[in-house]
Amino acid sequence: xxxxxxxxxxxxxxKSTIANYLVSLGFPVYVADDAGRRIMQKxxxxxxxxxxxxxxxxxxxxxxxxxxxxIVFDNPDRLKELNAIVHPAVRSDFKKWLLKYQExxxxxxxxxxxxxxxxxTEFDKIITIVAPLEIRITRVLERDSSDRQHVLNRIxxxxxxxERISKSDFVIENIxxxxxxxxxxxxxxxxxxx
Length: 194
Fold this sequence. Notes:
9 helices, alpha/beta, 7 strands, five-stranded parallel beta sheet, single chain, two-stranded antiparallel sheet, about 55% helix
């Protein structure tokens, strides 16, 4: 049974960059956001979303993710309702994925809402990726066609870095990617010893 290492951090912190680095080193990485997007295409999930949020978040049979995001990111109660639909399905999907990697010493699980979802209790170690607020905002604005206020609202909907750090085993500051990779390498050495 591999050790399961959680990777988390706020939007724009660079979680995906670190996850991609781990993949390049040959480690299995489960990306919860990607799984969530895939799972949200399943008929039973779409039906549950329609029942809870109405047909306004659909273009015909197609889920309008932007419309749904507009509802949930500004309303924590609605976000909890969506998470109650998606998170159990992601958790189940991860358990199936994990069966393929029973011989690996470690697997990594990357999620922005590792703590908010409560899934952090299932991991052996947790790494939090951090970056200064303005760098995070700039990264998201460059990546998404979003506006600053929308990014700030998403940041406010997530745990703070301080809250994440208080429950983490290791912290990587991701300002310069080479330094962040070095920190990840240090953590991998520590993991290999323990």
